[in-house]
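Ticket #365: bound-state structure for nicotinamide-adenine-dinucleotide.
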Amino acid sequence: MSDKLLHYGMVGGALDSMIGEAHRNAILLDGRAELVCGCFSRDLEKTLKTGKKWGIKEGRLYKDYLEMAEEESRRYDKIDFVVIATPNSSHYEIAKAFLERGINVVCDKPLTTTVREAEELKEIADKNNLLLCVTYSYAGYPVISRARDIVRSGKIGEVRFVNVQYVQGWLARDIEKENKQAAWRLDPSQSGPANTTADIGSHVENMVSVLVEKEIDTLCARLDTFGKSRQLEDTSTVMINFKDGAKGLLLMSQIAVGENNNFTVSIYGTTATLKWAFTEPNKLRILYEDYTEEIVQKEVATPGTNVGFKNTYSVFISDLIAKRNGEQITNDNAHFQSVNAGLRGMRFIEKCVESAKNGSTWVKF
Ligand SMILES: NC(=O)c1ccc[n+]([C@@H]2O[C@H](COP(=O)([O-])OP(=O)(O)OC[C@H]3O[C@@H](n4cnc5c(N)ncnc54)[C@H](O)[C@@H]3O)[C@@H](O)[C@H]2O)c1
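RESOLUTION: The complex was predicted; output attached.
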């Protein structure tokens, strides 16, 4: 074993997955934790192949997550945290298995498929004094914390309106028969009650919440399904009323032909507008009444890498180390996006589905 401070394991994220490598590379870039065990797939061959690439000893490659949770929790050198990068419907049972055995959890978004499951994970994590981080990786860009500070400082005045769009084109054609990532996302038994609202809407809700720090009062959602035989939506339009009177409009779509990851945020204050776009993720633009503009740029140490993912882990690992050194870090005061953010995200998804099912009526959040 190396001299890395922390050790972690991973469930899901085999070599042929969409996001597994992004997690591992982000932690590698941070440099303070080492991957020592895993159950990367339900298929043991894939787990062995992924483990071999990442130099994991065969004895710590497991046929299923329960065996991994059981075996790892009994070791004297048990892992400090587990990363969960499986399809949504399995997050709850996997996170629960590790939390109940005393292991901190990092889970990909959306945290679960129901609010009740998310509440239960929070209860278990808090009761066992464990940290549960949700990888809302876009909020991890250092410039996003800067943007939140700018909003807090009053530099753009009072926030009156938030307009966010996150559009992709990869589901424009009905590719779910030949694309496994599309297949599970559009299958309610694996994805939960929503597709687009959960898959990318979860990022949007989190970004809005991090940036403007306002509570939603009511929302009204329309979930559209343009694909011919889909059970879940591929486009989601949501209007929001915040408790303090501010408003918002969110558009999430996966049928926007030619769009890759067009995630754009505009926050309209009484004296200025703040803008962030994933096309230039380390930059903010502040627009003034006289049409002048100020650029706020964050220099990043590793340009060209996924800084949002890397920093998401850096913040979590710093909190975990601080907690190990005796600081009172909990899911309520953590610097990373904790189970609380995951739970709020699940409430957002459930409320959007409820509104849409009731003919796009306004529902209380
Ligand atoms: N944070 C982000 O920006 C981001 C981006 C993409 C995906 N995601 C999330 O990551 C998760 C995975 O998405 P994906 O697109 O990589 O999916 P994927 O289908 O590409 O990969 C899922 C992986 O999980 C494995 N798996 C499934 N069930 C398992 C089980 N019970 N035990 C062990 N391994 C199991 C599969 O073999 C596969 O390797 C989803 O929750 C998704 O919402 C997050």
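RESOLUTION NOTES: DSSP finds twelve helices and 14 strands in the chain.
TICKET STATUS: resolved
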